[in-house]
Amino acid sequence: SNAEYAAIPLLGKTLSFSIDLSGTDCGCNAALYLTSMRQNPNVSQCSDYYCDANAVCGESCSEIDIMEANRYAFVSTLHAPDDGEGSGVGYGNGRRDFS
Question: What pLDDT, on a 0 to 100 scale, did the predictor assign at position 81?
Fold first, then answer.
């Protein structure tokens, strides 16, 4: 059931985290992102309720890439459900392959 996934009310809140990217070289993408799995009523091709803007498991939904990074690059992007490329633009936009 999609009710098994957390729907954390973040409006007006702060999310903080620490990460050591010193071991993530070119070609590596350390990611922290939010998707709306609890709001997705459809079972994905991965047999759960996973969804993202690229429809990796066959289901698309909005996605917030808080961090996609390695020791040389950092990007954050907002994605609409049909916006896998991130045309919503984000801080650090313009680089996509982490190589």
Answer: 85
